[in-house]
Amino acid sequence: MTAQPARLERSDPGTASVMGDSPFKSSLVKAVFRDVTSMHVSRSAAWAAVSVTRTVLTEIIDGARRAAAEEARKKLVPGDLLSAIDRNVELEVGSKWYDHSPTFQGLTGVLYDAEGVIVPSRKRSRSQKPSAVVGAHRFEAGVKKLLRSRGVTAVPAMIRDLDGIASVFLTDLARDAAMVVREGGVNRWGTVTPVMSGEPAPLPFLKDSFRAVPTRRGDRRTIGRDDILAATTIQLFGGNLRQRALTEAREATPHT
Q1: Which candidate, 24, 67, 64, 65, places its Cα nearest to that of 48?
Q2: Phi, psi of 7 (to 5 degrees)
Q3: Which string of b and e fits 208-242 if b means at least 16 CB within 10 Å?
Q4: Any bridge partners for residue 222, and if so which?
């Protein structure tokens, strides 16, 4: 009997190369999704989520890198992160992390008593349920790889902030994608295009080119690529970052 050759899994060469270069693995993405929902996550959905997260983190790092370059530094510090967010409101993502990071202390609101003394925040009880904050360390290797690819390094506090932002953003993305599946589409819309004072308004998007359809096709048990794209429109403002994230996610999953 002639031995049959092993069957190889079909994949698009372009997609394989794009995802092979990604600092975040699809297995990590699926682990985050399992913390949020019991729904099945398709391979194309995982790839799309990886792509969106990579795009967001890259934009944040590039903004911080420009701030550091003004001081002739290649090692990023938390102050560079704050400068990047101050200069580009689109980078204000993963905001639930801000309450847990010393970098953002005072920006989320500090309470004072009648004598002007700071009221200490309530101690958070330990929960048995996994959270984006607890799982932030899972992104450290990917963040360091992404920093190297942009030609910079970062102090440990900055790496921890990037870990946390990535973890919270991806967790929120997973929750929104699951909501899209449960509700059968995106039922609420809103496009915000931030414009700096004195600067011309950016060109509008091509009509409906980056909007998810209000209703979805498919079963209610599987998160697909289009569900991730729809969740991205919820998570990101309607500016250049959203457009880039959606475009790169589509390119990373061209034949799904």
Answers
A1: 24
A2: -80, 125
A3: eebbbeeebeeeeeebbbbbbbbbbbbbbbbbebb
A4: 40
SS3 call for 112: strand
Residue with tokens 């372009």: 14
Residue 90: exposure state from Cβ atoms within 10 A (0-12, 13-18, ≥19): buried
For 9-42, what is each residue's pLDDT tens digit?
334 444 444 455 678 888 899 999 999 999 999 9
Q: Give residue 44's identity as a one-letter amino acid code.
A: S
Q: Which pLDDT tens digit goes with each residue over 203-234? A: 444 444 444 445 566 677 899 999 999 999 99
Report how far residue 122's alpha carbon sits from residue 90's, in angstroms, rounded to the nearest whole number: 30
Q: Which one, of 191, 138, 193, 150, lies nearest residue 60 by Cα?
A: 150
Euclidean distance between CA atoms 37 and 171, whole angstroms: 10
